[in-house]
Amino acid sequence: MAIRNLQRRQWLVRVCYVGRDRNPVADNLAALGRSQSMEGVVYAIPPSTLAVLAAEEKRRREDHIQDSNLVNQCSRKVDPRG
To answer: Virtual CA dihedral for 31, 16, 62, 54, nearest 10 degrees?
Structure first.
């Protein structure tokens, strides 16, 4: 019932799937979250594997490397009403 109520709203939804291989930082964070308790953990310094992945991602962004397939995939709008 809750999903049907959401579908009745007057809005457009943009859905974008990004695979694990294209977003290793988010994948690493998700895996880290699954391994922690529900109370959560706050890190003063990011775990080393995450820091390395984040540095690599930052370097790629600074080099202006963009995946055109990802940009095209995320630019499509989906109307949830069909």
So the answer is: -10
What pLDDT digit, counting tens, does each position of 25-74 carry? 889 888 888 887 767 778 888 888 888 988 888 887 777 555 545 555 55
Contact status, residue 25 vs residue 60, Cβ threshold 8 Å:
no
Q: Is 55 helix (H, G, I), strand (E, B) or coil?
A: helix
> What backbone torsions phi and psi does residue 66 show, to the nearest 5 degrees?
-125, 140
Taking the complete model, does pTM exceed 0.70, yes or no? no
Helices (H) then strands (E): counts for the chain: 4, 0
